[in-house]
Amino acid sequence: MVQRKKANPNTLVIMLVVVISGLVVLNHLIASSDVSKLEVPEPRPTFIYDQNGEVVSEISNSNIEGVRLIKFQKS
Known about the structure:
By secondary structure, this protein is α+β, with helices and mostly antiparallel strands.
């Protein structure tokens, strides 16, 4: 029969401290993120060029239409 070693209490405490520290750091990174620039879409289109450097296509998502909040009433 193989005997299993008991977990060292110090090892468990260290693992718990590492996990909690990681969660605190992750929470700080999320809280300090600047997402305000996501509210305004990038107005520049993306251009696709051919082999000669000529623009062959333009992809743009700037055709954004605002909608009033009243249209989203609770039902």
